[in-house]
Amino acid sequence: MKITFYGHACLGIEVSGKHILVDPFITANPKASHIDINSIAADYILLTHAHNDHILDAEAIAKRTKATIVSNYEVAVHFGNKGIKYHPMNHGGSWQFDFGKVKMVSAIHSSSFPDGSYGGNPGGFVIEGEHKNIYISGDTALTMDMKLIPLRTKLDLAILSIGNNFTMDIEDAILAADFVACDKILGVHYDTFGYIEINHDEAKKKFFDAGKDLMLLEIGESIAL
User: Fold this and answer.
1) Residue 26: closest CA among 71, 59, 63
2) Predicted local distance difference test score (pLDDT) of residue 96
3) Which is the most buried residue in 19, 53, 173, 211, by most CB within 10 A?
């Protein structure tokens, strides 16, 4: 499994020969100006919720690649009405795709489309594929529901929002790592704009002092599990 960071909360995941794109917000992110969305492969696009900083480039990429949108019912149908293939999900549900299993889990946040219309409930995802299991928190507060995840799935990586203000801060993300029983963390949703800027060295030290490894990738950088 290969994971590429495209800035903000956007990730590319290669697993079992398939390309999964998560929360594509690239073209309006000046920090990701060197990323060409026309070069990004996608068989599936997973969307955690309807906010513009998570869905901005989903339509363009899906129409170019013929990817399937996977999200909550409301977001999935929204893109389906645009002629895009979709697979609707909701909290607690899972589905066996051709690359592995995806389960949608809860997130405490809000969810609305750029025009203010209802975007369903926000969520996160647990992906199991190639004998590796990852958790994508989406935009969320710390929640006790995270403790349910390791009851079913032993994680190899937890991808957690860490930027504060709209989501968990560093201290809450450390607790989240405890809740999901995973010490290997990839941080997302930080630095994109002023409200969520973090001190990288301080964040890494706090995770290290808690016995955990926090990775903060450069935009375009990849890791392999």
Assistant:
1) 59
2) 98
3) 173
Tell me if 158 sits within 8 A of 180, measured CB to CB.
yes
User: In angstroms, what CA-CA distances link 224 with 1, 150, 192?
Assistant: 6, 22, 24
CA–CA distance, 91 with 68 (Å, rounded to integer) = 19
Give, for 173, the enclosing helix (H) or strand (E).
helix 170-179
Token pair of 124 as six digits: 């996160």
Instruction: Let me know: does 9 contact 54? Beta carbons within 8 Å.
Output: yes
- Rounded-to-integer distance, Cα 149 and Cα 60, Å: 33
Whole-number Å distance between alpha carbons of 117 and 41: 29
Site of tokens 């995802």:
125
Query: Radius of gyration over alpha carbons of the chain, in Å?
Result: 16
Side chain identity at residue 4, one-letter code: T
The DSSP line for 75-119 is HHHHHHTTT--EEEE-TT-EEE-SS-EEEEEE--S--B-TTS-B-
What tokens appear for 194 in the block?
């002023």
pLDDT tens per residue across span 122-163: 999 999 999 999 999 999 999 999 999 999 999 999 999 999
State pLDDT tens for residues 40-57. Answer: 999 999 999 999 999 999
- pTM above the 0.70 mark? yes
CA distance 69 to 168: 26
